[in-house]
Design goal:
The structure holds two protein chains of two kinds. By secondary structure, chain A is α+β, with helices and mostly antiparallel strands. Chain A has two helices and two strands. The relative contact order of chain B is 0.15. Chain B has five helices and five strands. Classes of the chains: A alpha+beta, B alpha+beta. The interface between A and B is large, with 45 and 82 residues.
């Protein structure tokens, strides 16, 4: 066995095995998106989700418009539609 | 599955007259600004759609920073749901500020009492503080829609 062969077998094979194991362990984590951790800043775009209009019956999502336009004064007045709910912090 | 989540950014909110402005459909495999994976988006979509269909209340979810005071901002956003606002449930989650707001309209508040909303908020907080954003959101939506029950006149 030449020196090159010895080095390849006794260094190359263990190295290959170790790197395979490392890939199997750390690979999926590296590919996956970083998950949310409390306390970290949130620098994603704000998103507002609504149910898909095709699958639910929501009047205004199906092109329904009020028969009478509300006068501007009504629209300008401060509106409050919230009645209840809850607040939480973590 | 049912359909795609309709997602809109804060600048293109549903108009006050009840017409929904610019909205984008998220194609499968296309993340919403990278905040959620397609799989997570599908779970949120399913939860929102089933909750809305079953309870006949409009379930809506906002994820992003809320201006201070966060409660007032969430209530302003609820107004923007227009004609749907009385029967709308808005869940606003701000992971950066670690605040969540559940806002119910008049009809929604009748069917989802505040203590139920508080319980849902508690369960969501527990999931969020463990770093499980999607799980908390999905369970919160389910708790709220379960409390609301099926639509009364059907």
């Amino acid at each position: 066995m030449s020196v090159t062969e010895t080095v390849l077998i006794f260094v190359g094979v263990p190295l290959g095995l170790y790197s395979l194991a490392a890939l199997a362990v750390y690979g999926p984590t590296a590919v996956r998106q970083p998950r949310y951790r409390p306390g970290r800043p949130w620098d994603h775009e704000p998103v507002w989700f609504l149910p898909a209009p095709d699958s639910v019956q929501i009047p205004s999502l199906h092109g329904h418009t009020p028969a009478i336009e509300a006068p501007a004064s009504v629209l300008d007045a401060p509106v409050r539609t919230a009645v209840g709910g809850a607040t939480g912090e973590w | 599955m049912s359909g795609d989540v309709v997602h809109t950014t804060r600048s293109a909110l549903p108009g006050a007259n009840g017409s929904f402005g610019v909205r984008q459909r998220i194609a499968p495999g296309e993340g919403a600004s990278g905040a959620f994976t397609p799989r997570q988006l599908a779970r949120i979509d399913e939860a929102l759609t089933f909750a809305t269909r079953e309870s006949d209340l409009l379930f809506s979810l906002f994820v992003g920073d809320l201006d201070e005071p966060t409660r007032a901002t969430a209530e302003e956003m609820h107004v923007k749901l227009g004609v749907n606002a009385p029967s709308a449930v808005l869940i606003a989650v701000s992971p950066g500020q670690r605040v969540l707001q559940i806002v119910t309209g008049a009809e929604a508040a009748e069917r989802i009492p505040n203590r139920v909303a508080a319980l849902a908020a508690l369960s969501m907080r527990a999931a969020f503080s463990a770093g499980d954003l999607t799980g908390g959101i999905v369970n919160g939506i389910r708790m709220l829609s379960d409390a609301a029950g099926v639509r009364p006149n059907r």
